[in-house]
């Protein structure tokens, strides 16, 4: 066997092994998403997410798993069987994904102001419609979870909640905000803890009961709530995690470039191998 044949065999099996790994990874992601869809109750108790956001994430995981499995299968079969059509399709899909990522990065960089304005509009619309339609609460529950995790309240400040009709009370002039604004580390109020004992606020203690769409958990705005708006908290989070985000993006991009290089090299050199076999 010549050195070139040995090199091609090495590339072939490297491509196969790497794609086999990603096929297994995609299978695990898919199974994880399906498990969340089927066994929502136990997963809610484990991670503390409410049902609607959990359903969205589970479907996203399942779809991501299927796409990863499909792409990895193309790479595995194309490399192992030395099929130029599959290797070419594999290269084309990777190239398309890489181009989409580059385009997305450029759009985010150039349209940052417009994007920030759009996100603000969506959040403010969610706040304005908070619990106006209890049966359509996916966006509201997701925003509750964001406030809880980022330890913030409102978009600009807690005052964003003061004019919301569903949060106002005729019995008192004290403004009220959702329980996701409550700063549990600043108080030991057991009455508020009882209000907060919903699945997606499970950091505060054991679960007392599941949240239903008719529940509305509120606390007075003059109690121990987060004083910072989520716009500022989100900026801090992005600043603190910028290196990790850039590193992940670069890692994914380099991985895609490596797979594209291996697949196109193998695809282009298969002709030479076929020619030599035909002569013999």
Structural classification: mainly alpha
Number of strands: 2
Rounded to the nearest angstrom, the radius of gyration is: 26 Å
Low-confidence stretches: 45-49, 197-214
**What is the terminal separation in angstroms?**
13 Å
Q: Kindly report the spatial arrangement of strands forming the biggest sheet.
A: 1-2
Query: Could you report the average pLDDT, rounded to the nearest whole number?
Result: 78
The main β sheet shows up as: 2 strands, antiparallel
Q: Which series of helices and strands comes N to C?
A: HHHHHHEHEHH
Instruction: Count helical runs.
Output: 9
Family: Belongs to the tetraspanin (TM4SF) family.
Membrane topology: Multi-pass membrane protein
Transmembrane segments: 13-38, 86-108, 242-266
Keywords: Membrane, Transmembrane, Transmembrane helix
């Amino acid at each position: 066997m010549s050195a070139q044949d040995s090199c091609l065999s090495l590339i072939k099996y490297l491509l196969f092994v790497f794609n086999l790994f990603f096929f297994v990874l995609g299978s695990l992601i898919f199974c994880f998403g399906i498990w969340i869809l089927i066994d929502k109750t136990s997963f809610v108790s484990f991670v503390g997410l409410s049902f609607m956001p959990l359903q969205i994430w589970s479907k996203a995981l399942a779809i991501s798993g299927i796409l990863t499995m499909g792409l990895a299968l193309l790479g595995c079969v194309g490399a192992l069987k030395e099929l130029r059509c599959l290797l070419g399709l594999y290269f084309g899909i990777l190239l398309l994904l890489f181009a989409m990522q580059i385009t997305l990065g450029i759009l985010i960089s150039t349209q940052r102001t417009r994007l920030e304005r759009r996100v603000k509009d969506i959040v403010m619309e969610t706040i304005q419609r908070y619990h106006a339609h209890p049966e359509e609460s996916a966006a509201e529950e997701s925003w509750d979870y964001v406030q809880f995790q980022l330890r913030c309240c409102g978009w600009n400040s807690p005052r964003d909640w003061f004019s919301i009709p569903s949060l106002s009370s005729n019995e008192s002039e004290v403004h009220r905000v959702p329980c996701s604004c409550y700063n549990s580390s600043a108080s030991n109020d057991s009455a508020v803890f009882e209000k907060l004992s919903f699945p997606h606020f499970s950091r505060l203690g054991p679960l007392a009961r599941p949240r239903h769409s008719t529940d509305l958990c509120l606390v007075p705005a003059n109690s121990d709530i987060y004083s910072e708006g989520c716009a500022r908290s989100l900026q801090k989070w992005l600043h603190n995690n910028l290196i990790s985000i850039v590193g992940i993006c670069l890692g994914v991009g380099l991985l895609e470039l490596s797979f594209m290089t291996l697949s196109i090299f193998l695809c282009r050199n298969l002709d030479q191998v076929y020619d030599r076999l035909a002569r013999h």
